[in-house]
Input
Amino acid sequence: MTQDLLKFNHDKVLVEGLSKEFSAEIEVPGDKSISHRAVMLGSIADGNSRIYNLSVSGDNLATVAAFRKLGVNIKKQNSGGSKKDFIIEGVGFYGLKEPKSVINTANSGTLTRLIAGMLAGNDFFSVLSGDKYLNSRPMRRIIEPLKLMGAKISGRGGDAYTPLAISGGGLQSIFYEVPVPSAQVKSCLMLAALYAEGDTVIYESKATRDHTENLLKFQGYPVGTEDSPSGGSFITVKGRHTGGLNPFEFIIPGDFSSAAFFIVLGILNKNSEITIKNIIINEKRTGLLKALKMMGADVDTVVKGMSPETAGDIKVKYSDSIKGIALPPEIVPDMIDEFPIFAVIASFAEGKTTVTGAKELRVKESDRIKSIVYNLNAIGIDIKELEDGFEINGNPDLKCAGKGLPKKLNSFGDHRIAMSMVIAGLILKNAKLEIKDINCINTSFPEFFDTLNSIIK
Output
């Protein structure tokens, strides 16, 4: 049955509607965001770190390759371990070596922005560049504050884009208010602050994902976090701490953003249920769960671990009374990666769903607002593009509009758009969806189709 639902042709997949119920228990790969940070901070720790369940997506393997190029020995665990278990032989704060060629950051905005902060503090020259999608993403948001710290960094297009050229060293501490909620910008400055003279204070008006803070504290580094009365937070990083960073041992929990596709599939497919085991449940990552509960979805979480990240199990069941909502703007930063799949569930909800305050979607792997609107329009969903979001008039009995099959959709090189449209195709019962450029899925979740097949076969 699986082969009838998913048919592959080079970089395209043809998806048919799922006509049976399922009950499944799965795990998803290690969290991408944490995997990036674990490799980076393990590389400059004082000793060997052991990381289990590292994401081996294209983005994360680019991070491993980048730090190998910087002179760090990163190797697989001895025989008998998983291919996702690594040993990182940390070189300490000042042990990174000048790379002999350009560091390829592939499709990863997280790698590019975070490693730029670290390289700005090291006394050597380096260049960062990625693929055509990465090289169109905004970099001025990190270049400007790094220059305030004294960094010598420049980018293409008047400091707007990669490639970035960095001559590191000589950083000073600053106070900086992040203008747009962004964990990448915050983390970039935190990593630069490790090398700065004095204490750097970063203020964000809306607290964002805190993986960098959590891992630094786990390594014994002095990082202060304080909530502000207005709902934001202050992060203080001590520069040039003589105690360095402790090596660590860490099992990385599953990636919530990867789990989101299966969460929505379980909620929308009649008489089905799914449990995702050992998943991150950091409240700064799980805004989608808050939104789903507001819509009336049957969602349950069980916490099973707390350090350095909260993790546990998520169980969802088919919910036949999903309602459209006006998404509260304060939830937006906590589900910024989940909007493509959120748009899918909103399409099958009863009533209107409105998203505003999500302009950051314009500068992800694609312009995700345009990508979402283009694809959902193509299958007959009543969706309106807004400057900072979208508006969907949902229909629980949604049928694919128009005649002629298949409906041709486009991922625009965006992995989350591609996976979301696959889920939409499984839920639509009277249509076939052809989604092109699906190879981009490998940047974040190369196991996606294998995991999906284990559920629907």
In short: The first helix runs from residue 2 to 5. The first strand starts at residue 6 and ends at 9. The mean pLDDT is 94. The radius of gyration is 22 Å.
